[in-house]
Design a protein that fits this description.
single chain, 515 residues, six-stranded mixed sheet, four-stranded parallel sheet, 14 helices
Length: 515
């Protein structure tokens, strides 16, 4: 019996060895067939190999040929510059495409800029309107995120250069580098009148607003106190209007019981603009309603006014040939924007035309002339609408352009028909003035008051990237709506207009003593 078992074991071993030899022979034949492009598709019909190969010979041939093709033709490389609304939307739209995506941004987070003013006025904290890019794209396996600043692009060699010297090659490039605050040639004003394009600037503005009330509480001289309690906002677009309304609520509601030496509601809030009215991009009836809502919050609107000088002590303006001086320690710039410096570099490299704001003139498919592999979207792109007017630099335009660029790249890879020219679907515009007060032009339907405020709140909540941030923002807004309380009223970091309390109060005491 033992001898029989031994013989059976030897026979099984011999059969296993024969199967292995057959398997190796078949695999060698398959390798030869894969290398030979003229060979027939299937050399042996129906034979199944060992369990690790799971499938017929023709399946193995197909898989190995695909691997060989991938080695010979690497995947389409897409580089996206900028993790804002346009760049992030483009990257996310490529998640199912057969491409390798590299998203490069000088910061590691996506910022929801429309709510920056709420950080500046203490309604929200920075973490509620910013989301780490790596977290947002963590499940997108064909995408990697790099933190770095792109300083140059070589469109002929198809290379992107970073400030640290790193170089990345691409097959398709999407440039969504965004914009920056423009002082129209007066960059020295930036020191005294910060803009609002970044978290750092928003927290600086929050510092200036809250710090002004703290200094006024310490000062006894009415003239000096008034300079600290005067808030001047330059620019009456949506950002300026929203900021002015929020400061009005802070002064008249949030802080009215917090001080003993001053009445915070006596704060003088001035909104300046060279245009004939506020919210020039909105219909006139909505602009008038917004102006009325601002007036109820104590905001003084001055239109048709040109700013001539901004310094540590205030603003010099000109209106109808007359010059006026507005003493103020808190000046905020909500004026124009200009394209990022990368736009100038790209224009020089590609010989593309630009407008006065530095935006690049793009083809109807958002590519640059002579460079069909370079897409420019968002605030960097100059594209006209059906009426011949440039598309506005708003989030909706950037997101729609990002989705279009991604889809166009996929079409090219698949060899499908090109997309028709990009057209912007205008969903409308929104601006909030205060608690339960807003104006909205949605699908040409004009709304104001509480209804417009609800639409504004819903739209902004839906466009915040992370679900957790949506929930915390919703809770904070609900608390603020019921109590007027702003939970992020923190004075952090230094500001150019800060003073030495002890030195200022001592000097004021000496002046009173001398009098």
């Amino acid at each position: 019996m033992a001898g029989l078992d031994r013989d059976q074991s030897l026979e099984r071993a011999a059969q296993a060895l024969r199967r292995q030899r057959v398997q190796r022979a078949v695999e060698r034949q398959i390798e030869n067939l894969v290398e030979d492009e003229t060979a027939p598709e299937v050399p042996v019909e129906g034979r199944r190999l060992c369990h690790r190969d799971r499938g017929s010979t023709d399946g193995i041939v197909a898989r190995r040929r695909r691997r060989r093709v991938k080695r010979m033709n690497p995947r389409h490389r897409v580089v996206v510059i900028g993790g804002g609304f346009g760049g992030l939307r483009a990257a996310r739209k490529l998640r199912s495409a057969d491409v390798d995506v590299t998203l490069i941004d000088r910061r590691n987070y996506h910022l929801f800029q429309p709510l920056l003013y709420q950080v500046a006025t203490g309604s929200l904290s920075p973490g509620q309107i910013a989301a780490p890019l790596r977290s947002v794209l963590s499940r997108q396996k064909n995408t990697r995120v790099l933190m770095g600043e792109v300083v140059d692009v070589d469109p002929d060699a198809r290379r992107v250069m970073l400030a640290d010297g790193a170089v990345f090659e691409y097959v398709s490039l999407i440039v969504a580098a965004g914009s920056q605050t423009s002082y129209y040639g007066h960059d020295a004003w930036r020191r005294w009148a910060p803009g609002m394009k970044s978290i750092e600037e928003a927290t600086n503005i929050r510092h200036k607003i809250l710090y002004a009330f703290e200094v006024a509480e310490r000062l006894a001289d009415p003239t000096e106190r008034q300079a600290w309690l005067r808030f001047v906002i330059v620019g009456a677009g949506a950002t300026g209007v929203e900021l002015a309304g929020a400061i009005g609520e802070i002064a008249r509601q949030t802080l009215k019981n917090d001080f003993r030496s001053i009445r915070s509601e006596d704060a003088d809030i001035i909104l300046l603009d060279g245009a004939p009215r506020v919210l020039m991009t909105f219909p006139e009836d909505l602009a008038q309603k917004a102006a009325g809502a601002l007036a109820r919050l104590g905001v003084h609107v001055k239109t048709g006014v040109m700013v001539k000088e901004i310094d540590q002590d205030g603003v010099t303006v000109e209106s109808q040939g007359a010059t006026d001086r507005l003493p103020s320690k808190t000046v905020i710039w909500a004026g124009g924007v200009t394209a990022s410096p990368l736009a100038g570099t790209l224009a020089h490299r590609t010989r593309a035309d630009t407008d006065r704001g530095g935006r690049l003139k793009v083809n109807p498919d958002l590519t640059l002339p002579s460079y069909p592999d370079v897409y420019v979207i968002g605030d960097l792109a100059l594209r006209l609408d059906a009426s011949g007017k440039p598309l506005p630099g708003v989030a909706q335009v950037a997101m729609q352009q990002g989705a279009y660029a991604a889809k166009a790249i996929v079409r090219k890879i698949e060899g499908a028909e090109s997309l028709p020219p990009f057209t912007y679907f205008d969903k409308g515009e929104l601006a909030v003035i205060g608690r339960a007060s807003a104006v909205a032009n949605v699908f040409r339907l004009h709304m104001s008051g509480l209804l417009a405020w609800l639409v504004w709140a819903f739209v902004h909540l839906m466009y915040i990237v992370q679900f957790r941030s949506r929930m915390t923002v919703f809770v904070d807004w609900a608390i603020e709506y019921l109590t007027f309380n702003r939970g992020a009223r923190l004075i952090t970091g230094p500001s150019a207009t800060d003073v030495d309390f002890d030195k200022e109060t001592a000097a004021e005491g000496r002046r009173r003593g001398a009098a």
